[in-house]
Amino acid sequence: MMLFSLKGAYRFWQRNAFIFRRIFPESLAVNFLEPVIYLLAMGFGLGAYLSTIGGLPYLVFVATGLVSTAAMFGATFECTYNAYVQMYYEKAYDAVITTPLNVEDVVVGEILWGATRSVLYGTVFLIVVAAFGVVRSPLALLIPALFMVSGLMFSVIAMTFTAVNPSIDYFTFYFALFITPMFMFSGVFFPLDALPAWVSTAAWLTPLSHVVSLARALALGTVEGRHMWDLVWMLVVTAALFPLPVVLMRRRLVK
Amino acid sequence: MVALVASPSRAVTMRSSVVRASGLTKRYGPIQAVDGISFEVRPGECFGFLGPNGAGKTSTMKMIYCVLPPTAGDLQVLGMDVRTRARQIKARLGVVTQDNTLDSALSVRENLVIFARYFDLPWREARRRADDLLEFVALADRADSKVEQLSGGMRRRLMVARALVSQPDLLVLDEPTTGLDPQARQLTWEKLRQLKRTGVTQILTTHYMEEAAALCDRIVIMDQARVVAEGAPADLVRAHVGREVVELRGLQDGEAILKVVGDLADGHEALSDLLLLYTADGEALLHRIREQGLVVEAATLRRATLEDVFLKLTGRTLRD
Ligand SMILES: Nc1ncnc2c1ncn2[C@@H]1O[C@H](COP(=O)(O)OP(=O)(O)OP(=O)(O)O)[C@@H](O)[C@H]1O
Ligand SMILES: [Mg+2]
Predict the structure, then answer these.
(1) Domain for residue A1, yes or no?
(2) Domain containing A208: what range?
(3) Could you give the CA distance from residue B302 to residue B316 in angstroms, rounded to a whole number?
(4) Which domains does chain B have, with CATH numbers?
(5) How many domains does chain A have?
(6) For ligand 1, what atom is nearest to the CA of residue B49?
(7) C-alpha A254 to ligand 1 mean position (Å)
(8) Mean pLDDT in each 10-residue stretch from start to end of chain B (320 residues)?
(9) d(Cα B290, Cα B282) in Å, to the nearest integer?
(10) Do B117 and A101 touch (CB under 8 A)?
(11) Does A124 reside within a domain?
């Protein structure tokens, strides 16, 4: 693996941020709308049938979980569809690698940008649900920092898939076989400990379950020692996978 | 203009060659794209690569601008090895790729500004150079347009402008004028000559022989991954086809003509309906054909050009 330069990665991050700035108002408005729709459907719709989960009102339980999925989708869309379009159709990477930046810088810059969007999306979602009164602890202020970590993790995973993805149509598989099941079985909608042991073990292997567990604990002020392991899990997985998209993207772009 | 280009003194300080390739080779799996070519580009010159489709020009350019690692051989650019100093080399290059790679999410002006940032220019300087360069390629009035609103030729000019934001010591231009109308091509030639006067070394590929003849001090002709000729355009014409060409159309018996003209022709090229005779004395040759009463539909005498050299050296498929 050739080394990336942090400055080079920052330059590409800056390009993405520059482009994003333009659609920021619209994008933010949509970001505000989405959680509201979720809360109406889940909280008031479903919540009318389910009163409490583990002593929490259903609305509170589900809202503190959805915050993490919003963050996950922010990073995932950026590093799947957006990155693929930039790389394959727009030839943006081909242009950038004729400058002092190399492929590694571009990939790392894209991952950092994915993490940034993750923080933006997750935080906006958090602010909206806070307005519904589901946040109960000032520890919630640490959630954006958590999303930087989880955003890096989801970006690295998505970018790895993008680097080997033969065509844009295959992202359907990424979402159908990875993102959606994870969305359903990571403790967002129901607690994992209510499931058969093997299911909760399997769920523990999914990245999202750790984000949900930690973000919910921060929002509710119920952090315990075991949450430490969620953070460790994310850091270890992110660090271990990090070289993968970088190496694979070089292999793809440099013949 | 002064602000747009490297200081002339830079070229002077680079005494050794700007690019030196020896035994340069590129293979894509089983495909041999570049087969052990050697050449040298000198400071301040314009060096051209000609050759039919698939000859290996773009592969060679990509190795020079450090996005394609050579399979074998040695390649030094600006005195540095492409395998180990890519970043430092690219910081001093300006590149126009064969395919346009403009950022469609950005306006014309922003394309230049953001690109300048990759070279670490401060925003203010980046914006100043962007405006100067838009002026330079006559796109100032389109500064705020979206890239997709530009015509093909305008995009190409924007690519050239973008290659100049870093004030490069070496410009690598892969078919810079493909798709340009005659006016835009003339404009681009003029700009490239202007840059050359300030000491910027240029390497370009082209399918237009007039372009190579008009711009290049020296050229190489590539065919099937190898260099088949090298030299100044005028020298190549003299060496390979002589001074004049007689074009004969609508022949009844090409063989008979060749027999008749004998040693008055230094060589010939048969292209479907057309027979080209290379000669030092076209008048004498035409005279002999008329004298012998041979039937031709049309006979033209003209000066030999680079195109004749090109056809002679790379016209294999047409000849067979
Ligand atoms: N990425 C690649 N993978 C496999 N083969 C390639 C690749 N790029 C180029 N080639 C092959 O290498 C050879 C040289 O291609 P190259 O693009 O260098 O030619 P060129 O002289 O620039 O042609 P043109 O005038 O059409 O632009 C061709 O046979 C081409 O098919
Ligand atoms: Mg080419």
Answers:
(1) no
(2) 6-253
(3) 23
(4) 8-232 (3.40.50.300), 242-303 (3.30.70.980)
(5) 1
(6) 21
(7) 14
(8) 46 71 96 96 96 96 97 96 96 96 94 97 97 95 95 93 96 93 91 93 95 94 94 90 85 77 82 84 86 81 88 65
(9) 12
(10) no
(11) yes
